[in-house]
Design a protein that fits this description.
Aminopeptidase; 2 domains; 7-stranded mixed beta sheet; 7 strands; 39% strand; globular; binds coenzyme A
């Protein structure tokens, strides 16, 4: 039904962010502040991608590189477009960017309850390297994961 070859992926611009902002609270999960996000787009250490299908933003994600380590800042697929493969696609692109920037590893933290994201990261070879207990809202722990490049 979805032809992933029709997916357009490119570096996120403020105009994309403005469009995402309209849906940020409903479709894209509210864990990012718009102003912080806008600053990230002009940060030389950061790379954010946006994916469009049929002209519509369906997924976005970004990394921040510090020395030789890339940190995954976020990957979000629009709620009604999940489990189609968009997340895998954008994660693959982010890993390629980290390689191009000569990173030796990629790190991230994910809520222990986020089974879908954990599955996605494990599928790409990320391994659990640590746990931050009760990191989210003093309740759920954050799993720290790393992928060696
Ligand atoms: C995590 C997220 C980005 C995945 O995006 P997506 O576009 O749905 O990802 P894909 O369709 O490429 O892949 C989803 C995979 O998770 C699997 N999955 C879905 N729900 C699952 C669950 N509850 N438990 C385990 N695996 C699950 C799917 O089967 C698929 O795996 P497969 O390819 O082996 O079949 C999306 O769920 C999302 O935006 N979540 C909210 C934001 C978030 O938590 N981001 C990650 C933390 S930064």
């Amino acid at each position: 039904m979805f032809d992933l070859t029709k997916l357009e992926i490119y570096t996120m611009h403020v105009s994309d962010l403005n469009e995402i902002k309209e849906n940020l609270f409903q479709d894209f999960d509210d864990f990012w502040n718009y102003e912080i996000f806008k600053e990230e787009l002009v940060n030389n250490n950061s790379s954010y991608l946006v994916a469009r299908y049929n002209g519509e933003v369906v997924c976005y994600g970004g990394i921040k590189v510090v020395f030789d380590v890339a940190d995954i800042m976020n990957i979000v697929t629009r709620k009604d477009k999940r489990n189609i493969g968009f997340g895998k696609f954008i994660l693959n692109e982010l890993i390629d960017i980290a390689r191009e920037k000569d990173c030796t590893s990629i790190t991230l933290e994910v809520n222990e309850n986020n089974k879908c994201a954990i599955h996605l990261y494990e599928k790409f070879g990320f391994e659990q390297v640590g746990l931050r207990k009760k990191y989210y809202d003093g309740t759920h722990s954050a799993i720290l994961m790393t992928l060696k490049l």
